[in-house]
């Protein structure tokens, strides 16, 4: 803000709390840099308290233009809002709950309808800082300057759709306050992910990077297992084997060139037979990680095989897609105390629909409290949960919660989930802990999609595009790590 703002017009909406107080401070500094400022306060000055009252008095002493919003005068400010180069939204911050009371709702609606650029102070007014929930009207900002540390709601839908670009304003919080307020949440960033990725030494060979065994495929669905297997290779796993029901084996073997393939005894329906574990014992003995579920099918025979496998293996697992749907019907596998030790090695990657079925609630209930359901499921079942969707949530039974900021709507197409499962399995096989592998997989998967979007847009993005981009993203993250050494 060091530069001159001479002649630029700013319309500042300042609410009754400390967010409004920030608005007065911003406006005062803009005025001192030559800007034209106009304040709109939302209640009688006598109701302003604390820092907000102090700063309101300062702008009054400076005789800066300031009017009071009344139930019947909302429309009279429309012209001034239209003329503003930038509207500053300092109406509500972290103290906001529920639906904005009138006439504030009407004011927010007018600002959005007029459509001039808005900078939100701390959070866009109308959303709840801790959840991103928007119950009524909410300011649609082009930029949000959040104070001290990013608020979680800025990264959770629907809030995330109202923030525009998020910039963290440094107000020099003392460090202990920062962590106190930050709670048990982390935004996944490139330092965390590059820190978790293994560095490769010239003396290492493929045996050092783990063996991922993908178990999936049923009649009509061989592509999913192939995508997961290739993603595991692109993520850097040393060896990958796709275990496929024997009837589909010839088709799958053609689809996969670099990954190995192995037939499991099949069911009549074209899936896995319930007793097929013995037929793949040789492969299981060599596996570092199993990724189970892509294109797996849900027939009873296959469900029987999954149960047999889960009861009799302690190999780390990534469970995706139909494996999760089967768990919904065989819930005891998630709750039986006798499996608690094994479950510590499981990563579940549900999308909101699968999560809703697993938790026995509706998709809208999951979406309204993504953090809450992810945390509860992870604690109750003792597994790492990766709840997919815009802003994937990752958490383990002991917390904390990680929110992944990468990714875009281009990921809403068939097969991208298979790629994520393969990628997480790949990182697990390379020695990352379950949570690390999960958040690194989600971050890199989303970043690959973001890179593709820059080059080709999101509409025609397909899962196969991610496979080519993933190695580039990983290479850049490793370079970042090497620079930091
Ligand atoms: N916590 C801190 O240490 C700091 C906070 N700061 C700012 O202060 C903000 C938080 O301040 P406050 O706690 O005063 O809260 P807010 O500034 O968010 O405002 C709360 C006010 O809004 C009213 N309100 C809440 N829900 C409403 C609804 N549905 N309809 C109408 N009115 C409603 C409340 O009655 C209260 O008067 C932060 O967002 C940030 O901008 C910064 O100044 C930096 C330091
Ligand atoms: K605000």
From TrEMBL:
Report the Gene3D superfamilies cross-referenced here: 3.40.1190.20, YjeF N-terminal domain (3.40.50.10260)
- Per its UniProt record, what InterPro entries does this chain match? Carbohydrate_kinase_pred_CS, CARKD, Nnr, Ribokinase-like, YjeF_N_dom, YjeF_N_dom_sf
Where, in this chain's numbering, is (6S)-NADPHX bound? Answer: 224, 295, 351, 418
Judged by the first EC level, this protein's enzyme class is: lyase
Q: Which GO terms describe its biological process?
A: metabolite repair; nicotinamide nucleotide metabolic process
Q: Where is the YjeF N-terminal domain?
A: 1-179
* Keyword ATP-binding in record: yes
Give the required cofactors. Mg(2+); K(+)
Reaction catalysis annotation = (6S)-NADHX + ADP = AMP + phosphate + NADH + H(+); (6R)-NADHX = (6S)-NADHX; (6R)-NADPHX = (6S)-NADPHX; (6S)-NADPHX + ADP = AMP + phosphate + NADPH + H(+)
> Which UniProt keyword terms apply here?
ATP-binding, Isomerase, Lyase, Metal-binding, Multifunctional enzyme, NAD, NADP, Nucleotide-binding, Potassium
Where AMP binds, per the record, is at: 388-392, 417
Carries keyword ATP-binding? Answer: yes
Entry's cofactor comment: Binds 1 potassium ion per subunit.
List GO molecular-function terms, semicolon-separated. ADP-dependent NAD(P)H-hydrate dehydratase activity; ATP binding; metal ion binding; NAD(P)HX epimerase activity
EC number, as in UniProt = 4.2.1.136
Q: Please state every residue range assigned to the domain named YjeF C-terminal.
A: 189-477
Recorded hits in Pfam families, A to Z, give:
Carb_kinase, YjeF_N
State whether it acts alone or in a complex, and with which partners, per the record.
Answer: Homotetramer.
Q: Which NCBIfam families match?
A: yjeF_cterm, yjeF_nterm
**Family note:** In the N-terminal section; belongs to the NnrE/AIBP family.
Biological function: Bifunctional enzyme that catalyzes the epimerization of the S- and R-forms of NAD(P)HX and the dehydration of the S-form of NAD(P)HX at the expense of ADP, which is converted to AMP. This allows the repair of both epimers of NAD(P)HX, a damaged form of NAD(P)H that is a result of enzymatic or heat-dependent hydration. Catalyzes the dehydration of the S-form of NAD(P)HX at the expense of ADP, which is converted to AMP. Together with NAD(P)HX epimerase, which catalyzes the epimerization of the S- and R-forms, the enzyme allows the repair of both epimers of NAD(P)HX, a damaged form of NAD(P)H that is a result of enzymatic or heat-dependent hydration.
Write the protein's name: ADP-dependent (S)-NAD(P)H-hydrate dehydratase
Source organism per entry reads Syntrophaceticus schinkii
Q: What is the lineage of its organism?
A: Bacteria, Bacillati, Bacillota, Clostridia, Thermoanaerobacterales
- The gene behind this protein is nnr
